Amino acid sequence: MILKKSLGVFLFGAALSATRLPAQSAATVTIQAGQPGAVVSSNLFGIFFEEINFAGEGGIYSEMVRDRTFYNSNSAVYWTPVTQGSATGGISVDPTQPLNTNVPNSLKITMLSGTGSVGAANAGFLGMSFQAGATCNLNFYTLAARGFTGPLTARLVSANGSQTYAQASFSGLTTNWQNYTAALVPSATDTNAQLVLSLASPGTVWLDVVSLMPAATFNNRTNGLRADLGGLLAGLHPSFMRYPGGNFIEANYLTNSVRWKKTIGPISQRPGHNNDSWGYWSTDGFGLDEYLQFCSDLGMAPLYGINCGLALGWNGATNNTVPLDQMGCGARGQRPSRPL
Fold first, then answer.
1. Per the domain annotation, does 281 fall within a domain?
2. Judgement on whether residues 235 and 211 belong to the same structural domain of the protein
3. pLDDT at residue 329, rounded to an integer
4. Would you call 316 helix, strand, or coil by DSSP?
5. Which residues span the domain enclosing 276?
6. How far lies 283's CA from each of 1, 5, 68, 142, 286, in Å?
7. Cβ atoms of residues 143 and 152 within 8 Å
8. Are residues 201 and 229 both part of a single domain?
């Protein structure tokens, strides 16, 4: 097959206005379709992910609760105390009741007296979005002070708390950590809602790893990605995915760089870390397992980035390199003394 087309030739330059343009000339392009040239790899088109500007937390990762593990021991960041009626009490972060060694802080809710309720509200990432009839899976850990067995109530409510879209109550609380789950089905659609957990009688409870996720995740993966955003990425048909980022891997301080071994396993065992490059906490919920599952679902090759012993060291940060003899790479020019 031979294709011919006339092409216009254009000249650009600083002296263009002072130079007379030549007349258009004709050119011929001949394509020999039966004689292909160099083979182009099918793996050149891919996508890149970095935990920056909430691309994962509050983005593609389907967790709706922000600060589910109460990482800041000084205050309940993104959790708001809620009281109803004449009830008195409050909330606070408590480092004396850790869920485990990886999750050292919990949220303490106390109702002292009165009628009504005392609780804590979380609006997620600029408001939780609920769709009528679309199930949300609630999962959390709790223990109670001696003598209090519940109930503890979880509600999906409007931003001002005037409307309740779904709720569940939990009894049988003990002085040991227990895991509770519930499928909550909103009765209405609200794109600026919140989750509230509360007590309606005097007592004290502690909460940890409070998670709320849509039941319908991408490819129905547990602890999965948002179905809508995952579907959009699938529509790109990428051949590979680079993950988990650039500056996110390095961090400003080496102590905050990504450690892949801490991003696997149950979310109740993942410590998360300070994403100090971009200024917010990462739960590492979208961890190595979830990344590899996503690669499998889309049929793309994984391209995982590993810290090479360097950190950014912005604003005068020091001690941001790992000596070569501590990298586990053996002597220069030799094979590694142990697997990297």
1. yes
2. no
3. 64
4. helix
5. 47-59+219-326
6. 57, 57, 8, 19, 8
7. no
8. no
Asked if residues 144 and 205 have their Cβ atoms less than 8 Å apart, the reply is yes
pLDDT for res 25: 80
**Residue 168 to residue 182: CA distance in whole angstroms:** 7
Calpha distance 260→273 (Å, rounded): 11
CATH number for position 83: 2.60.120.260
Boundary of a domain, candidates 154, 188, 216: 216
Asked if 148 and 117 touch (Cβ cutoff 8 Å), the reply is no
- Type of residue found at 182: A
Name the stretches of the chain with pLDDT < 50.
Answer: 1-18, 333, 335-340
> At how many degrees (to 10) do helices 288-298 and 227-234 cross?
50
**118 with 187, same domain?**
yes
Beta bridge partners of 107: 93, 207
pTM listed for this prediction: 0.85
Helix (H/G/I), strand (E/B), else coil: 247: helix
The three-point CA angle 240-299-306 to 5° equals: 40
Residues contacting residue 64 through CB under 8 Å, at least 6 positions apart: 124, 125, 128, 129, 136, 195, 212, 213, 214
The pLDDT value recorded for residue 183 is 98
Q: HSE of 27 in the Cβ direction (CA atoms, 13 Å)?
A: 7
Identify whether residues 68 and 207 lie together within a single domain: yes
CA atoms of 340 and 323, how far apart (whole Å) = 15
Question: How many other CB atoms are found less than 10 A from the CB of residue 103?
Answer: 21
